[in-house]
TrEMBL record, chains A, B, C, D:
PANTHER family: ACREF/ENVCD OPERON REPRESSOR-RELATED, ACREF_ENVCD OPERON REPRESSOR-RELATED. Residues 34-53 bind DNA. One of its GO terms (molecular function) is DNA binding. Gene3D superfamilies: Tetracycline Repressor, domain 2. The lineage of its organism: Bacteria, Bacillati, Bacillota, Bacilli, Bacillales. This is Potential acrAB operon repressor.
Amino acid sequence: MDYITTQDQGSERREQILEVALKQFSDYGYHKTKVSDIVKAAGVAQGTFYWYFKSKEAIALEIIHNKEADLIAVVLQGYRESKVTVQEVVQASEKLFEDYFVFSQQNKYFMRLLLKGMETEESVQSAILETRIKLEKAFQKNIERAAELGILPQKDPMVQSALLVSLLEGMLERWLFNPQQGYSKLQSQSAKQLAKDVVQFEFFGLLGI
Amino acid sequence: MDYITTQDQGSERREQILEVALKQFSDYGYHKTKVSDIVKAAGVAQGTFYWYFKSKEAIALEIIHNKEADLIAVVLQGYRESKVTVQEVVQASEKLFEDYFVFSQQNKYFMRLLLKGMETEESVQSAILETRIKLEKAFQKNIERAAELGILPQKDPMVQSALLVSLLEGMLERWLFNPQQGYSKLQSQSAKQLAKDVVQFEFFGLLGI
Amino acid sequence: MDYITTQDQGSERREQILEVALKQFSDYGYHKTKVSDIVKAAGVAQGTFYWYFKSKEAIALEIIHNKEADLIAVVLQGYRESKVTVQEVVQASEKLFEDYFVFSQQNKYFMRLLLKGMETEESVQSAILETRIKLEKAFQKNIERAAELGILPQKDPMVQSALLVSLLEGMLERWLFNPQQGYSKLQSQSAKQLAKDVVQFEFFGLLGI
Amino acid sequence: MDYITTQDQGSERREQILEVALKQFSDYGYHKTKVSDIVKAAGVAQGTFYWYFKSKEAIALEIIHNKEADLIAVVLQGYRESKVTVQEVVQASEKLFEDYFVFSQQNKYFMRLLLKGMETEESVQSAILETRIKLEKAFQKNIERAAELGILPQKDPMVQSALLVSLLEGMLERWLFNPQQGYSKLQSQSAKQLAKDVVQFEFFGLLGI
DNA sequence: GATGAATGAGGCTTCATTCAT
DNA sequence: AATGAATGAAGCCTCATTCAT
């Protein structure tokens, strides 16, 4: 007989409500997701929601903050080793982008919130925006390092990271979220293949080799 | 001496409500924009809104459809003349992107709706999505033509237009909409300069000349 | 060339609005009939309605009062001559009921208002009720006279007229107004035949000769 | 000692709202009865209404359906035993009519809805009409049986039941619902006495024995 | 911890009526 | 006389949040 303590059963419930809320926010948006929907899907009573969370806004905020660190970690980790040749940088980029796409695949709902930026309270909006900025900063830092090493031409790194992240986010959106026409070929690609396409374009543009 | 007829004064009211609504939808989103807010800002009574529009949903739909054609026209027009050298294509691209950014600047609120894709009724959502798809299709067609002419390498034009539009939309977002930190340098650029940056990256990538 | 004065053209409009309103009140009821519906059907502008009538309530009141006198006249006229034999009374009744049904047929919409007693303002309600009471009083007076002449047994004339009018109104409703099942045979009857049925029942009951 | 469970307290609230709504619908009609009136009279908040009922229309429908079965049962039960003489049939009729009037007295508000047929949504209208048709069918069936047994002359049973129900409904209206003049004597009668009057007229008419 | 009934502010919309022309 | 745009009170309903148990 295992002595399962009940002390963290609440925790489990909490986790479950969080998950359900994330999915619904992502699928239907913040306003169209009613607290009553969340509790129904989570199989708890309406009051229970408010035992665990102060408000609908609070749970949204928590959802954002929860995964922020994980996402940033993916990017920062991607550049840890120093590289010296273009070849190495390209390979590192490929690896990084793949990680980014894999993470997005595994955290589809979260990423949709981040990109589609739900229409919600100021506080949540800000949280989303900040996360995205942090992410872009992480990319920017790496571009700067590569420029210092003479691997990349010396151009405005802010603009370059903006271009790069635009690429990543745009492709991610089309790959994971756009349900309909046109992108079926894209959607059947693996994260690795998608990363390759982006890297190719990133470094060499349309005319590229 | 012009005899200004009063006959379209009603039309003016209508137009004014449309404008106010567009701005508010763009600034605060669909759900947070109350009909009562719109009429207050437009200086008319609540009932007046319903004299001109069937519902809140209807005005949103009309807003989208209103400018769709204009936007598409900008892109289609951009490629009318045939080009034969890379130089010409690059220049044409620059011109096109500039037009796109200028249009966006002049229709800032509309473009924000399009990109941030407000959380709203199905019908409006679809209208937005369709507009974006049409836009991308327009770009795709031109890439295909350039490939046929041997100006661009023969790659998947769907992926290439997706990459391109990602670039444009991402930069547009950072240029026009992101109110805060980091993008001040970007935001002070002219549409022309921004177009140059994007074209440079588009054709030659990070490593480009 | 006829010199049609335009002075009563307004009158015509007025009449037309009255007619349209009567039909709509009867068909859809007071509350479900909107002033905007009436004017649409009458082919005039919304403001025109209020040139002719003080309010929606006022037009309803006028409609009721308009035909009240006609209806009462039908009943009072029915008993003008003195009768001395049962035979004569029965024949007179038959004639009277036929008149009543014919009038109802010709004033279908008005009679429906009277019987279904629309859900409306107090004042209109009262007007309807009063009309019905006047009608019943007219019947009652005649029953009293017949009783005095020894033609009818001396019973409570109030109850008898109530019974009689119940009969008339109930059959009228089923004959003219009930659109559906069961009454098709009834509905194809003439006013004369219907009057016969009612008179038969009135004087002799179910067991009657 | 009774252990009154609190489990159906919610049910009590529901019941109370139903009752209040029935009374108000009956007294003022469907449209003039506002949901805000109902909850005020019931002493609950506006939202509470919508916890128990989907809409104003839904509660009206439920009210109708609730008592329909009871009413039909009264009529059907009235004729269960077989009768062979006129005397027996008359007595059975008297009993049945009395039951009908007693039920009506006890369900005054419901019966008013049924007879005055409130101006409301299609669905409720239909529910009311159907109930009335079922009732008349029940009467018709019994008249047919009496005719088969040779107790009543062979005439059109549809017409006869129509006449009969007209009588019952008309008298009920005057007995229970007409607040004013003229019917005071009627209104002070017992259900039994009223039933007698109607039966007398039903079988023998004005001239009756 | 958990329930679900209860709350009430506030949103969208309708519609009788008024007003400027 | 006539128009039709404009008004605003008021109705139905939603839904985040609270409360008694």
